[in-house]
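User: Design a sequence. Structure:
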């Protein structure tokens, strides 16, 4: 507000009035103003919770390895709260006009109601019965995939390498359920499945790397208290983006005095600098092409696109891995200094390993863009190979496109998983009446990818990397065991990227020996291939038994 000189002089004259002068009368307040002043002076009532935890109990059984396992199932929600805003956000608040601030303050603080399905083996004492927390990734994915495809007591049957016909779908006893080794808790991330978010800044509060890790940390510690599982051997199983969450959780839980016995990673991506991009957009970043090459070679081998195709896949991939980290990596590092003869020689080798034409590889400058391989490998047949699992093929949507327009595996099996879980949840678990089940939500591009590593004083504006989190967790809990699993036919999170990450995990050799590796002739969802489902069940069950003393 501006004050004129005349008004200013008038105020000075009033100030100079002798003390004997009559004091000014108080300005009369309107009833509305008086009510507002009174409300402002009185303490505010505590904000009422948005969500209320709930739980529905049921019973069932599964037969695993010929043995019947009776269990109690708990389908319900726990409520977690947004962290307090950081100093930067507080400063932004201070600059907000009072009216807007008042409006915002009237909104309840953000909460997430996180849905879970827990299975507890009957008669097993909690003191020595392992418990495993499982989740998929996305970000923005529910955990329907691990639940109905891998380790829950019931499993949906899908077709191998082709589109699963429409309903009715077949749901069977899951003889590969992990209930033979551990109690299980399948968790849907905030906003996915039957989980929901609400309140002030709900997206900013839960849709980000560190926000997500914090929400799951709150959930797990609450769960341990609710069901009396603090003294149980504890495991975290994450798939895809869930591996980033899982590695972050290993440290975040330790900071809440929860030591894990084991961390199980499936189709891991802990360092997002290894994700491929368009070389025209992000030139000079060459490692993603190096770590993706063995998966391209495995795919070409599978579809008989490799010249002089060797009989053994593992022997072939060892050769490709050596080329990828040797001659190929050196050629990419040289950039524009790479000579024409060497460029031609490397392109010829790439063609041998990938099944792509030399002329095409020279046009790409030896760098195969994400999605381009899937589109080009069988382009003469107008077919596209899968991204999550390159064993799958589908009709190309746009023959003139540069990259694949969709993922044939996702299109082939997603409807079966979602329908089967909706039917199972509402019919068997008796949960979800009147509520939409969201298998996934479109938040990938809106996700807050800033992450604060344990040695940094603030979140970094960079692609997230949770290898430092895992390293600190393993150093401070030297008994923590880590199991890495992956599929050879996964372009989304290439198996060799997982190997490469762990080669650079900053821990001493004696701690690095706590990491073990298992790879399968399947894709991202290893369990979508029946022989691989059997193998990963046996490997994970053995890992839990070895590291927990479970019987």
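Assistant: Done.
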């Amino acid at each position: 507000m501006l004050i004129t000189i005349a008004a200013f002089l008038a105020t000075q004259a009033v100030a100079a009035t002798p003390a004997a002068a009559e004091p000014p009368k108080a300005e009369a307040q309107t009833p509305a103003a008086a009510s507002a002043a009174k409300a402002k002076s009185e303490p505010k009532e505590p904000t009422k919770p948005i969500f209320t935890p709930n739980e529905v109990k049921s019973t069932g059984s599964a037969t695993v390895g010929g043995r019947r396992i009776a269990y109690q199932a708990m389908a319900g929600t726990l409520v977690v709260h947004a962290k307090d805003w950081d100093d930067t956000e507080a400063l932004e608040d201070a600059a907000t006009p009072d009216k807007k601030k008042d409006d915002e303050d009237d909104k309840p603080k953000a909460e997430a109601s996180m849905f879970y399905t827990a299975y507890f083996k009957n008669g097993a004492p909690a003191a020595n019965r392992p418990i495993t927390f499982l989740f998929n990734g996305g970000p923005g994915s529910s955990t329907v995939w691990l639940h109905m495809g891998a380790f829950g007591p019931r499993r949906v049957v899908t077709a191998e390498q082709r589109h699963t016909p429409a309903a009715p779908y077949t749901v069977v006893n899951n003889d590969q359920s992990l209930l033979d080794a551990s109690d299980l808790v399948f968790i849907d991330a905030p906003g996915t499945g039957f989980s929901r978010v609400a309140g002030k800044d709900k997206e900013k509060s839960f849709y980000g790397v560190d926000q997500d890790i914090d929400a799951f940390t709150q959930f797990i510690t609450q769960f341990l208290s609710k069901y009396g599982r603090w003294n149980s051997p504890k495991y975290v199983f994450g798939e895809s983006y869930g591996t980033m969450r899982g590695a972050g959780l290993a440290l975040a839980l330790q900071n809440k005095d929860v030591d894990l016995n084991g961390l199980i990673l499936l189709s891991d991506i802990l360092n997002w600098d290894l994700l491929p991009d368009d070389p025209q957009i992000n030139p000079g970043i060459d490692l993603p092409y190096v770590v993706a090459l063995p998966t391209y070679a495995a795919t070409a081998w599978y579809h008989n696109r490799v010249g002089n195709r060797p009989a053994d896949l593992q022997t072939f991939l060892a050769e490709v891995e050596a080329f990828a980290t040797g001659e190929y990596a050196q050629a990419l590092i040289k950039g524009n200094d790479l000579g024409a003869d060497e460029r031609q020689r490397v392109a010829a080798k790439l063609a041998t390993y990938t099944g792509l034409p030399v002329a095409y590889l020279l046009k790409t400058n030896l760098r195969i863009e994400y999605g381009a391989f899937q589109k080009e490998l069988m382009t003469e047949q107008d077919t596209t190979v899968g991204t999550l699992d390159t064993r799958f093929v589908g009709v190309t949507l746009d023959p003139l496109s540069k990259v694949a327009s969709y993922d044939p595996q996702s299109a082939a099996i997603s409807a079966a998983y979602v329908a089967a879980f909706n039917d199972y949840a509402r019919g068997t678990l008796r949960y979800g009446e009147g509520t939409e089940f969201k298998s996934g939500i479109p938040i990938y591009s809106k996700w807050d990818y800033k992450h604060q590593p344990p040695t940094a004083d603030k979140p970094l504006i960079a692609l997230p990397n949770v290898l430092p989190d895992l390293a600190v967790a393993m150093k401070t809990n030297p008994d923590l065991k880590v199991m890495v699993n992956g599929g050879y036919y996964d372009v989304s999170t290439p198996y060799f990227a997982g190997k490469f990450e762990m080669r650079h995990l900053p821990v001493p050799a004696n701690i690095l020996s706590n990491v073990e590796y298992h790879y399968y002739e399947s894709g991202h969802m290893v369990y979508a291939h029946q022989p691989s489902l059997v193998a990963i069940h046996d490997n994970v069950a053995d890992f839990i038994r070895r590291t927990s003393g479970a019987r």
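The chain is about 40% helix and 15% strand. Residues 1-27, 87-97 have pLDDT under 50 and may be disordered.
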